[in-house]
Specification:
It is found in: Cytoplasm. InterPro entries: Dynactin (IPR022157). It comes from Homalodisca liturata. The protein is mainly alpha-helical. The protein has a domain of 209 residues. 86% of the residues lie in helices and 0% in strands. It has 13 helices and no strands. Helix 2 runs antiparallel to helix 3, helix 8 packs parallel to helix 11 and helix 10 packs antiparallel against helix 11. The longest helix has 103 residues. The chain is elongated, with a radius of gyration of 55 Å. 15% of the residues are buried.
């Protein structure tokens, strides 16, 4: 090619290069614009989606508001028609206010009547307590009268027997007297007849005592026979029981423990009755002369002290008795397993009964064994019965028995303070000991009054 063609080709190449550069720049620019448009499109799509959701929410909200508007229209329509109802309700409110005032007046009257009723019930309860106390005293007097009646009937029977024997003796003496007269008429000696009559007169009381003792011996023999029959009956029944029945902690111990507590209560009652008869209350004023003349004051104090422990023992024994009558068989068997230890405590009461039989129960008797017996049952009662949750404390029996125990303690302290006051020489001014004794005496009297009200 020629130079012209070469120059022309170079110019074309230069123009092509420029065109290629411009095309490259234009392609890059278009690519950039395409990316930008793509991003804008995606943003618009997202915005469109948000607007669609917002539109749906607004449509739902519009529907809800339309429903609310409809409800409000209905409520407005109902409110427009409720004016008459408001007037009626206002009239009813006034009527109810009048009725409320009437009811408040009625309530005030009823409260006044309730106060009167409570007062009447309180008076009736006090009257009932007084009547019950009188009934208890009447029952006690009746029992005492029956006991005296039995003693009188027994005495009458003994006297009738004595009269019969006396009549026989009188008849015999009359016959002997007639014989003596005949012998006197015959001038014979009467020494032998007199010697025969006098021993019979002297032995009359011995004959009567022997007859009475013979009757009692027969009665005791009959009772002994009944006891032996009962024991033999129990042995026969036990022979048919399984071996587990007689095991320790078995049903046999449960039965024995059921019999133990009524027996212990009965023995306590016997001791209390015998102590009351043997050591009567001191009715006269306690003076140095009374203290030096005998031991009645000391014996009465000892009686009150023992009575306090016996009533305390009765209180816990009665709780055992009530609890065993209402507990489950499992709890009864649990208590029955402690029967051997409980039976050991019975020996304390038996010891005091034996002392009374031998006439050795006096003011010098030791009460440690009785206190240990009380402490034992007081300790075992929560462990054996209350811990099971099946039984509760019988409040009535507990208050009654402990009230008697506290009354006996008050009587003992009151007697001791009176004794100390009698032994202290009185001066122009009372000593501290005298003031203390007077204070204790007053406190015991007040406590006795409160205990009497509690027993009612």
């Amino acid at each position: 090619p020629t130079s012209y063609e070469m120059r022309q080709l170079e110019q074309q190449n230069a123009r092509l290069r420029d065109t290629l550069v411009r095309m490259r720049d234009l392609a890059a620019h278009e690519k950039h614009e395409m990316l930008k448009l793509t991003r804008d499109l995606e943003a618009k799509k997202a915005e469109n989606a948000d607007l669609t959701k917002t539109n749906e929410k607004l449509i739902a909200r519009t529907t809800e508001l339309e429903n609310q508007v409809t409800d409000l229209h209905e409520q407005v329509d109902a409110a427009l028609g409720a004016e008459e109802m408001v007037e009626q309700l206002g009239q009813q409110k006034l009527t109810l206010e009048d009725r409320q005032k009437e009811l408040e007046e009625t309530i005030a009257d009823l409260e006044a009547l309730q106060e009167i009723n409570d007062q009447l019930q309180e008076d009736s309860r006090e009257l009932e307590m007084d009547l019950r106390e009188e009934v208890d005293l009447a029952h006690a007097a009746t029992r005492e009268a029956l006991r005296q009646k039995e003693a009188i009937l027994e005495s009458l029977a003994d006297r009738e027997l004595t009269i019969v024997k006396f009549r026989e003796l009188v008849h015999k003496l009359q016959e002997q007297n007639q014989d003596l007269r005949i012998q006197l008429e015959k001038e014979s000696s009467n020494k032998s007849s007199v010697a025969q009559v006098l021993p019979e007169m002297l032995d009359f009381k011995k004959m009567f005592a022997e007859s009475k003792a013979h009757a009692r011996a027969i009665d005791l023999e009959l009772r002994r026979m009944e006891v032996q029959q009962s024991q033999q009956h129990v042995q026969y029944l036990a022979a048919f029981m399984p071996d587990s029945f007689m095991n320790r902690g078995g049903d046999n111990d449960a039965v024995l423990v059921l019999l133990l507590f009524p027996r212990l209560l009965w023995k306590c009652e016997v001791l209390l009755s015998q102590l009351k008869d043997k050591f009567p209350a001191v009715t006269t004023a306690i003076t140095p002369q009374v203290l030096t003349q005998g031991h009645a004051v000391q014996q009465y104090t000892a009686r009150c002290y023992l009575a306090m422990h016996l009533h305390s023992l009765q209180a816990i024994l009665r709780q055992f008795h009530d609890g065993l009558n209402s507990c489950s068989p499992e709890t009864l068997l649990k208590v029955g397993s402690s029967y051997p230890d409980m039976a050991q405590q019975e020996r304390a009461l038996d010891g005091y009964i034996d002392l009374h039989k031998r006439d050795q129960l006096d003011e010098n008797v030791n009460s440690d064994s009785l206190e240990k017996c009380v402490n034992y049952f007081v300790t075992m009662h929560p462990l054996l019965l209350l811990a099971s949750g099946e039984t509760r404390v019988h409040q009535g029996h507990l208050v009654s028995d402990l009230g008697k125990a506290l009354q006996a303690a008050c009587d003992s302290i009151h007697t001791d303070t009176a004794t100390i006051q009698a032994l202290i020489k009185s001066g122009p001014e009372p000593t501290d000991m005298q003031l203390l004794c007077q204070h204790l005496s007053t406190v015991m009297e007040v406590a006795s009054q409160h205990l009497k009200q509690i027993r009612r």
